[in-house]
Specification:
Number of domains: 1
Low-confidence stretches: 27-42, 277-295
Strand content: 15-25%
CATH architecture: 3-Layer(aba) Sandwich
Mean pLDDT: 82
Number of helices: 12
Helix content: 25-40%
Largest sheet: 8 strands, mixed
Shape: globular
Length: about 300
């Protein structure tokens, strides 16, 4: 397998191509930007179309869950989306945090950032911004986010421990994350693990479920929960590109499982309450009269 920087470049190139084509083309392949198989598959994506705040132009048919559905976002929250793509999860988060909140999307693919900014401008969302950068070195300050979400992105980053440490740094004390990702139970065949396209396609970069959860514990997150879990089945016509017929049969009958999980965890500490408006700003007129009688 290639080194970290080479893997990042593979992913960046892959997702640049995804950004340049439409959702229908992306949905025709395993995870987008490949030659379509002989059937139309989108093996990981959950359906956003009924989700409040959903923006069709920002949905490229990627992702493996609906983290914003489980993220417990409140009005006025500051939310960060890791691997924000064309902005779909940011716009769903913006619906939850409202105009008084703030949403920051981070992505390392320039064309994705531009697509997301264009979408935000068309929608008139002045409290949603997109920053270009790596999620293992986020371009944000410490203790800034109430909530962090991400959808099928950590598995694309070679150093997952570094990303989780960054999430801890950026969250406010008492803040939390809800992240959808791909994990494994059992071992993938070497032909799948070592293929760059399968890495960029969300599978080969996945790690063991137990290891994934342990990384989160090691950083001192607490109240760790699996909010949703679903199996991912790779179609045979995709497996056959990498495995013999006998190997496909063995893989399909083995104990190896590929799963989409949505994981929730909290950073220790107590979140400070947002300052309340003075009564004089809420009531029309002065709070107290000249004779000292308060309303």
């Amino acid at each position: 397998m290639k080194n970290e920087q080479e893997l990042k470049e593979i992913v960046k190139d892959r997702y640049t191509k995804i950004a340049e084509q439409g959702k229908a083309e992306n949905a025709s392949s395993c995870c987008g930007a490949t030659t379509p198989s002989n059937k139309v598959y989108n093996i990981m994506m959950d359906d956003y179309s009924e989700t409040s705040g959903y923006v069709e132009d920002a949905d490229l048919g990627l992702g493996c869950g609906l983290p914003t559905q489980f993220a417990k976002i409140k009005k006025g929250d500051t939310v960060i989306d890791l691997g924000s793509g064309a902005g779909n999860d940011c716009f769903v988060a913006r619906h939850e945090t409202g105009s008084e909140g703030k949403v920051i999307g981070i992505d390392f693919t320039p064309i994705m950032i531009q697509k997301a900014r264009n979408n935000a401008e068309k929608l008139g969302y002045n409290n949603v911004e997109f920053r270009e950068g790596d999620i293992d070195a986020m371009p944000v300050s410490n203790d800034i986010a109430d909530v962090i979400v991400s959808n099928c992105v950590l598995n694309l980053v070679p150093n997952k421990q570094k990303v989780i440490a960054e999430i801890f740094r950026v969250l406010k004390p008492g803040g939390h994350f809800s992240i959808s990702d791909i994990v494994l139970v059992g071992n993938l065949p070497d032909a799948l693990k070592e293929d760059a396209e399968m890495y960029a396609g969300c599978v080969a970069g996945a790690i063991q479920k137990t290891e994934y959860l342990q990384f989160i514990k090691d950083v001192r997150f607490q109240n760790i929960q699996i909010q949703k879990e679903k199996p991912i089945v790779i179609p045979n016509d995709i497996l056959e590109k990498y495995l013999s017929s006998e190997e496909v049969k063995t893989f399909n009958t083995s104990d190896t499982g590929i799963f989409s999980v949505t994981v929730y965890a909290e950073k220790p500490g107590t979140k400070q309450e947002k300052p309340k408006k003075p009564l004089a700003e809420i009531i029309d007129g002065p709070c107290c009269s000249a004779d000292g009688n308060c309303c």
